[in-house]
Write a structure and sequence with these properties.
- The protein is an alpha/beta fold.
- Helices cover 39% and strands 12% of the residues.
- The protein is built from 14 helices and twelve strands.
- The chain has helices at 3-27, 71-89, 103-110, 135-147, 156-167, 198-204, 225-235, 246-249, 271-274, 277-289, 291-294, 299-310, 335-340, 359-364; strands at 60-65, 93-97, 117-121, 180-184, 189-190, 209-211, 214-216, 260-262, 267-270, 316-318, 324-326, 329-331.
- A seven-stranded mixed beta sheet has the order 3-2-1-4-9-6-10.
- The longest helix has 25 residues, at 3-27.
- The protein is globular.
- The N and C termini lie far apart (63 Å).
- The structure holds guanosine-5'-diphosphate and magnesium ion.
- Guanosine-5'-diphosphate is lined by residues 65-67, 70, 97-98, 157-158, 161, 185-186, 265.
- Guanosine-5'-diphosphate binds next to helix 5.
- InterPro entries: Glyco_trans_15, Nucleotide-diphossugar_trans.
- Keywords: Transferase.
- One of its GO terms (cellular component) is Golgi apparatus.
- This is Glycosyltransferase family 15 protein.
- Pfam families: Glyco_transf_15.
Length: 367
């Protein structure tokens, strides 16, 4: 065999393997599901974490990230959720903070619920800006946002919070024992009695991520997020679910992001999704780009994009019967849901079909 035949054979082999790899690439996207929901077995407790003291039976907790200075808003939110739901179900509360909670905070909070309450300290490495972030570039990014009048433009703690909620809260030792969580923030309102257990609902209906409000993100906070997501999708097509919710995120099959996201100050969801291989590699990839600090990537678009791409759309759930407000938006149920929940909000005062809302896009996927 002369050299040129060996050379040609080599080229042919390389060419064939490239074509092969390309075909596999084409085949894999949208054919596999990264995360499958809930078997009944997984729903039971596997540790001696605090249990619900009421009629709740799910492996679930109410999660509250807060500062000591948030106390009055924390109390108000707890009163809402206890009154409308938890006084009956008794799900344990978990409070997290990067600084120790003060005795005043703990004493005041403990008065608001007869359910177990735990207070956890966030490990510094899960909270603060990592050393490898180029501070000059981060400062430049913040200055640019400030000049553009963007909310929380030059706020580093806010960025810590967004990154923590994106990639760390579910790893905290106090949350490790639990599968499902309900996220609570200061100064939120619940308008209706929650007449069933939403955690049971997720389990029984094989749902993974529940929301109440959905609208558009401020693009200037995430200028390179979608390009980064596309890069990840190309590298990891195996994580993209078949029957995903790409049509909720994009009006052109994924070319550009339409900025729709689920508002993450309300979330009732399955932490095992955040703990999955798909989400872990997604978060690590995003984090490695530094966009939580160079820009201001929010946990809402990060969670939403992941849930919409790595889950079949049937695993998302719009809790349309839960009346909820976080300034400046609210969702108010209507019809039978409003009556059953004895809601105190006005059914017409709801973001659902307002121009800023993405609910129509979400619903269109199921029509
Ligand atoms: N421990 C702690 N919690 C924070 C910090 N910043 C925000 N949070 C919490 O993170 C959540 C979101 O913050 P919030 O100020 O409500 O942001 P917004 O809803 O996006 O305007 C709330 O539960 C806050 O209490 C912080 O620096 N430390
Ligand atoms: Mg808030």
């Amino acid at each position: 065999m002369n050299v040129s035949v060996v050379g040609r054979k080599k080229y042919l082999t390389i060419l064939l393997s490239l074509v092969g790899a390309f075909c596999i690439r084409l085949l894999i996207p949208f054919t596999s599901s990264a995360f499958s929901s809930t078997s009944d077995q997984d729903f039971s407790y596997n540790t001696n974490a605090p249990l619900p003291t009421g009629k709740g039976t799910a492996n679930a907790t109410l999660v509250f990230l807060a500062r000591n200075s948030d106390l009055s808003g924390v109390i108000s939110s707890m009163q809402h959720l206890e009154e409308k739901f938890n006084k009956e179900y008794g799900y344990p509360w978990v409070f997290l903070n990067e600084e120790p909670f003060s005795d005043d905070f703990k004493t005041a909070v403990q008065k608001e619920s007869s359910a177990p309450i735990s207070f956890g300290l966030i490990p510094s490495e899960d909270w603060y800006q990592p050393d490898w972030i180029d501070e000059e570039r981060a400062t430049e990014g913040r200055d640019k946002m400030k000049a553009a009048n963007i909310i929380y433009a030059d706020n580093v703690p806010y960025r810590n919070m967004c990154r923590f909620n994106s990639g760390f809260f579910y790893k905290h030792p106090l949350l490790q024992p639990y599968r499902y969580y309900w996220r609570v923030e200061p100064d939120i309102k619940y308008f209706c009695d929650v007449t069933y257990d939403p955690f049971d609902y997720l389990r029984d209906n094989k749902k993974t991520y529940g929301f109440t409000i959905s609208f558009y993100e401020w693009e200037k906070t995430i200028p390179t997020l979608w390009a980064t997501v596309k890069e990840f999708m190309a590298l990891h097509p195996e994580h993209i679910a078949s029957e995903n919710a790409m049509n909720y995120l994009s009006d052109n099959g994924g070319d550009t992001y339409n900025l729709c996201h689920f508002w993450s100050n309300f979330e009732i969801a399955d932490m095992d999704f955040w703990r999955s291989e798909a989400y872990t590699s997604f978060f690590d990839f995003l984090d490695s780009k530094g966009g939580f600090y160079y820009e201001r990537w929010g946990d809402a678009p990060v969670h939403s994009i992941a849930a919409a791409l790595f889950l079949p759309k049937s695993q998302l759930h719009f809790f349309r019967d839960i009346g909820y407000r976080h300034e400046p938006f609210q969702h108010c149920p209507k019809g039978d849901d409003w009556v059953r929940g004895m809601c105190t909000c006005n059914s017409y005062d709801t973001l659902d079909y307002a121009p800023q809302s993405c609910i129509s896009r979400y619903e269109k996927m199921f029509q």
